[in-house]
Amino acid sequence: MKIIMLGAPGAGKGTQAKMIAAKYDIPHISTGDIFRANIKNGTELGKKAKEYMDKGLLVPDELVVDLVIDRFKEDDCKNGYVLDGFPRTIPQAEALDAALSAMGDKMDYAINVEVPDENIINRMSGRRACVGCGATYHIKYNAPKTEGKCDTCGADLILRDDDKPETVINRLNVYHEQTQPLIDYYTNKGIIAEVDGTQDMNDVFNAIVSILGE
Ligand code: AMP
After folding, report:
1. Taking burial as the number of CB atoms within 10 A of a residue's CB, which of 12, 92, 113, 157 is the most buried?
2. 2-117+162-212: CATH architecture
């Protein structure tokens, strides 16, 4: 099963993507996580990506597309994957379609997790990310067991630079201009499914499972 998660930054698509990956036993491919790992490891790609990410801008398409398409060649992708944060522009979606059709393949679902902008700004200021493993929490809706520490690896939790309020507003503008058109793109392809992302995360997940099947 090949799934794309769509939705504004902070809509909860990363959380849902992880839950989908666990239930259907497919890898969760997050371009944001790949960039953050590269930043942490001080790679050239990480240095380039950071300049854009810290401003709330998208990393240029040419730095993203090959990275994801190469990832598909790994063994764990043979039964599908859930893409989180990719594609984010029409050219990325077209490049993805071209690469899949060259492999005789196609995407099965694009799930749009819908959350209004005002809820997003509220949510993102409470988001915390683990400096060790990248796990994300929310101080109110998904709090760690010990304040400021990751449940999984025990490392410190921080407010990511790109979750700071001024950056969030930029990210939302970028989302509306560059990523939202993908909803029409996948509607035209007949694979869009909409879920109400304002619900409790388990209810959002149940709505997704009812689309994907047990
Ligand atoms: P995310 O964790 O998915 O919200 O991504 C964090 C940041 O990484 C974004 O704000 C972008 O700067 C960058 N990024 C992640 N995925 C992409 C993508 N598909 N295209 C361009 N930039 C991306």
Report:
1. 12
2. 3-Layer(aba) Sandwich (3.40)
